[in-house]
Amino acid sequence: MSGGGNTAYGRKAFQRSRAHFTDRITRDGRDGWPVEAGRYRLVVSRACPWASRALVSRRLLGLEKALPLAVADPVQDDRSWRFTLDPDGRDPVLGIRFLSEAYDRRETDYPGGVSVPAIVDVPSGELVTNDYQRITLDLATEWTDLHREGAPDLYPEPLRDEIDQVMAEVYEDVNNGVYRAGFATGQEEYERAYHRLFQRLDLLTERLSGQRYLVGDTITEADIRLFTTLVRFDAVYHGHFKCNRWKLTENRVLWAYVRDLYQTPGFGDTVDFDHIKRHYYQVHTGINPTGIVPVGPDLSGWLTEHHRAELGGRPFGDGTPPGPVPEAERVPAHARP
């Protein structure tokens, strides 16, 4: 999710920018960035669904110590994501006030906005990558030497073709679809995105009515990518983005599916509903000029029984759940059910 130009949201046609910095951090270091514990810093906003993918993957794989975390303020300004949650408004490791400073150290006058997730090289202070589509796949496949014991295989090789296909459909119609609807500047543009979104959600409902997870019988990258949109659906997309054919709580299958994941260690413990709501309603002034943040929805239902285990499946395959959330990374009590 990009920072900057907040007043333009809802006033110009929406187009998802492709990641400009696509270097990869790999086991062999072929792009000049070898996997190395403690060398890099993952910069996220807990408000952003694209960054939340990296948060979930990092937790499931046990990379908290190997890839330290920087959390940006959910309410950015036109200078980009800022570190105003930290003392003196600076990231304590990188020493910068704005994520754009790491971008500028890598390249001046770069195209596109300043987006999260971003991985920064600590020694140089330079951005390494903002490739939100690739970061989590590399965490699953290139960082394996640093995975915790019992880490799940989130991108199993025999299922990759099917996972890729499902993720492509979810990306186009759901992950990106809610934004196309929410940032539409004309009725036809909005309705086109709206109908594609709910057609895809209908198909996902049918798929998930008979199986616990999207592909195979374990959690994969496909589930992570769908989860980060669904967990925001009623809080922001239903009202703020006008995706209101139904609330997620009114779809028996998807509501049970997302609760199942939310209650799985590594998913719900990364979600900050306070950050989510404040970002969308306070930053998108072109859509919500008053900046008023709604009090609801009621979050208590997230912890209710989902009965999805009756479909079988093994959340972590032959692995185990991640351990407790590190104290410094716990979501405040007021921001969760």
What does this structure look like?
This protein is mainly alpha-helical and 337 residues long. The protein is built from ten helices and six strands, in the order ββαβαβββαααααααα. It has helices spanning 49-61, 100-106, 132-141, 160-175, 177-182, 187-208, 221-230, 233-237, 252-262, 273-283, and strands at 2-3, 40-44, 69-71, 114-115, 118-121, 126-129. The protein has a four-stranded mixed beta sheet with strand order 3-2-5-6, with helices on both faces. Strand 5 and strand 6 (126-129) form a beta hairpin. Helix 1 (49-61) runs parallel beside helix 3 (132-141). The longest helix has 22 residues, at 187-208. The radius of gyration is 19 Å and the shape is globular. 44% of the residues are buried. The mean pLDDT is 95.
Map the helices and strands.
Blueprint: E1 2-3, E2 40-44, H1 49-61, E3 69-71, H2 100-106, E4 114-115, E5 118-121, E6 126-129, H3 132-141, H4 160-175, H5 177-182, H6 187-208, H7 221-230, H8 233-237, H9 252-262, H10 273-283
Parallel strand pairs: 2-3
Antiparallel strand pairs: 1-4, 2-5, 5-6
Helix pairs in contact: 1-3, 1-7, 4-6, 4-7
What are its keywords?
337 residues, mainly alpha, 10 helices, 6 strands, globular
